[in-house]
Amino acid sequence: MNMLIFIIAGLLVHCVFLASIFDIYFTSPLVHGMTPQRTPLPPPAKRLVLFVADGLRADTLYELDDNGTPQAPYLRNIIEYKGSWGVSHTHVPTESRPGHVALIAGFYEDVSAVAKGWKENPVEFDSVFNESKYTWSWGSPDILPMFAKGASGDHVYTYCYTAEKEDFGAQDATKLDTWVFDHVKNFFQAARSNQTLFSKVNEEKVVLFLHLLGIDTNGHAHRPNSREYKDNIRKVDEGINDIVSMLEDFYGNDGKTAFILTSDHGMTDWGSHGAGHPSETLTPLIAWGAGVNYPQKVTFQFFEDEFLKEWKLEKWKRLDVNQADIAPLMASLIGVPFPLNSVGILPLDYLNNSAHFKAESMFTNAVQILEQFKIKMTQKKETTLSFLFTPFQLLSDTEQINILRKARSYIHQEKYHEAVSLCKTLISLALEGLSYYHTYDRLFLGISVVMGFVGWTSYVILLIVKTHTSLTRSTHDKASTVLLLYGFAAIGVLIAFFLLIQTCPWTYYIYCLLPVPVWYAVVKEFRVIQDLASLLLVFPLGQSIGFLVAGALGIEILVFSFFYRSTLTVGLIAFAGWPLITRLWAQAKVTTLCWTLLCLLLAMFPLMPVVGREPNISLVTVAGLVILLISSFFLACLCKSKNKYVPKKDLTILLFQMLSIALSTYVVNSTHSSLHHKQGLPVINQIISWTTLASSLFVPLLSPTFFFQRLLSILLSLMSPYLLLSTGYEALFPLVLSGLMFSWIYMEKEALQHYDDSLKPKLAVLNFSYTTDITQFRQLHLDDIRRSFFFVFFIVTAFFGTGNIASVNSFDPASIYCFLTVFNPFIMGSLLVWKIVIPFVLVSCAFEAVQVTTQLSSKSLFLIVLVISDLMALHFFFLVKDYGSWLDIGTSISHYVLVMVFTIFIMLLSGLAQLLTTKRIELWGRTKRHSM
Ligand SMILES: [Zn+2]
Ligand SMILES: [Zn+2]
């Protein structure tokens, strides 16, 4: 097969695999077409005021400070004398947008938002604001428009500061909150003199929403333990006090206003949110006013956490809710229909109302959630062939009617308690059923994609066997090929027809039809399969099982290393033992000793914490000195060897590189000490840093292409920028890694002799520029699979040896201080990427050397690497997560994507490595080339 066609086909197949996860895992759970459900009894409140203190942690609000005074005296007073309180448990991701959606629309925002961007609304949804008569909202332009846009008609009004103006909070973020309070006061001042506005705000079913961003901003800037964060809480407390008395005054103390204070998410001690730590997921909820229960004094209440004691609130009943439960609570207080997509369960304990009202409300809640279930089921039923449809067993149509009828009759008989518990059962069944139908297609799509994956991988294996080994004598049988073609075409048509009658989305066609041509290509090579099978049958069973186990174990180690870096240590220790098992050590004792020692030394790196946690500049200095030592040793060797001719300019280049290493070591030290003394980055340091970086890629091209000279030159050149970008132990990493790479090249040479005595490459005379001269590549054998595996393993080690995906996300800016100190995401990102890529380049250059030593074509090795990475990708396909924090979801996707682009990346890397190792620039004119 033509290589170009193969690459294009491979890219297409991988793109489909990559896109498939968004159809399989990340689809919107929302359904449309439900009828609004409203409790038939009159509501207790005419209007609701919702305060959302963005980023406010439950514990910071509730706890007392060192003197025993509350952080928010007014709100504390409400907990003790006026209202109900508790902790609202948010879902991950703990971000503003999903938090507000859960609060106001009552559902946990679908992860399809991951695929479709963060800010833009992926779907239209209903909310309490939309159901209200009028909603006025004040706050951030990032949050408010979301609910105004989704609302039908013109009854949700927003007043935001502009995004640019958000800067006025740059010095003092509490201004964001005082802006809101002032504007609310002005609004009501204006309402007194404006007749139309006055009658509007006096309507029923009115919502006032105050979004207070100051606390979140201060938390990000100064962390939640700071004075600023706590002062902001006090400001908000005072502001709420003012607003409440202003409103009561405005409405003449009519007792028809309900108040709710909560937050969208919490914040970690270090000022971030998004993940699932309790400091992020526990938010406060305080409700008071019309229709809300007064404080309930209790003598004992049990919670697993110790918060009640810490907060000195043991005496007041704590009522915990899930964040989405707040939406039905608000809806019930002002008597609007529950938001259509809400999955919240009305927290009855918060209501100060008759048992009849509570039972009716719960009944409404159950019907509203059941509506979603019914629509979801109908949708699925319509698009599935009836004989294939397996309904959700626990909630059949008759079961639904039974429960509803029974609950109705309980209410008639005034057995309100029984009615409530029956409704709660119905709700939990309906929610379970909703998730059942939401993931209904997952298995079927998953199987299709896995079929495609397995087919593709088998095809690549067959291709390797066919073109790079002497295992088969391939002859083509024209007649049977034509027959096969018709057969597979028929299967394809059948699948398409099947999808057509189920009215599946067009993407399903791609996932289901893709395996057809792939498997056709596999089955077409049935002669190769036959030969391979007969060969395997002759092969001793124990050996083939051992080989399979070793292969599976190798892949597993690679996959696990993405989650636990320490797995790499296990792998490296196994590598250290490799020469012992294969008896290579008897053949080359010194090389083996070096290999084993370096493997064990490198095995220590994955056990250390990820980079950037504890800066330790002295380790960078040590790394610099060690390289200087090694290179001067090499220099001495070069000068001593009298029988060899060493051009003067090669020595000059080496000396120049050593100088650059020494300079880099000095610059790192001087920069960090100068920054430590708050004297800024010296300009001369900056100039040296950038020059070193620029020179690092072309200086190696000046050195001779003999194996060790060129490899050492590449190492020295790449080490200088790496030192400049290091802040701690990671400076030693490329050093140990390249040491191991050198001994790897030696080991591979020994391994080659071990199996085949006729091949005896002499490393000293090997020259990278010979690569193109090798016209006759040898055939592949089993040991080449191990070689490719080593390469993939070292590439993975190069990445996870010092960090992980999270550490790339949240890197320490200290590592780029030698280059710039002002914030510039683009330059910072590029420098960081280069730092990550340097170890990859080292490994790739070593692999290039291994290919030359073992006389292998890079194409055949590339195919083996492709198989290994596809097997890994298949594994990660099963590990993609659609729940958890953005970080969890993002990490699982990025693992998958990482392995997917792995192959493309390896192609690019091997190109770069080839360039670095084989090209030579002659600066001083061409000299006669001497082979040593
Ligand atoms: Zn927020
Ligand atoms: Zn935030």
Please tell me about this protein's structure.
With 932 residues, this protein is mainly alpha-helical. It is 59% helix and 5% strand. It has 35 helices and eight strands. Strands 4-3-5-1-6-7-2-8 form an eight-stranded mixed beta sheet, sandwiched between helices. The radius of gyration is 34 Å and the shape is globular. It starts with a helix and ends in a 14-residue tail after the last helix. The structure holds zinc ion (2 copies). The site of one zinc ion has 7 residues, from helix 4.
How do the helices and strands line up, and which of them pair or pack?
Blueprint: H1 3-24, E1 47-53, H2 58-62, H3 73-81, E2 84-89, H4 96-105, H5 112-115, H6 128-131, E3 134-139, H7 144-150, E4 156-160, H8 174-193, H9 195-201, E5 206-212, H10 214-222, H11 227-250, E6 257-262, H12 278-281, E7 282-289, H13 307-311, E8 321-322, H14 326-334, H15 355-382, H16 397-412, H17 416-438, H18 442-468, H19 478-501, H20 506-513, H21 515-524, H22 526-538, H23 541-561, H24 566-581, H25 589-602, H26 617-640, H27 648-676, H28 683-695, H29 707-724, H30 733-755, H31 782-800, H32 805-809, H33 825-853, H34 858-878, H35 886-918
Parallel strand pairs: 1-5, 1-6, 2-8, 3-4, 3-5
Antiparallel strand pairs: 2-7, 6-7
Bound molecules: zinc ion (2 copies).
The bound ligands are: zinc ion
Assess the beta-strand content as a share of residues: 5-15%
Biggest β-sheet: count, sense, barrel? Answer: 8 strands, mixed
Shape: globular
Work out the helicity level: 55-70%
Cα distance, first to last residue?
41 Å
Count up the helices.
35
Question: What is the spatial order of strands in the main beta sheet?
Answer: 4-3-5-1-6-7-2-8
Structural class: mainly alpha
Q: Could you give the count of β-strands?
A: 8
Question: Cα-atom Rg, whole angstroms?
Answer: 34 Å
* Poorly predicted spans: 925-932
Overall pLDDT confidence? 83
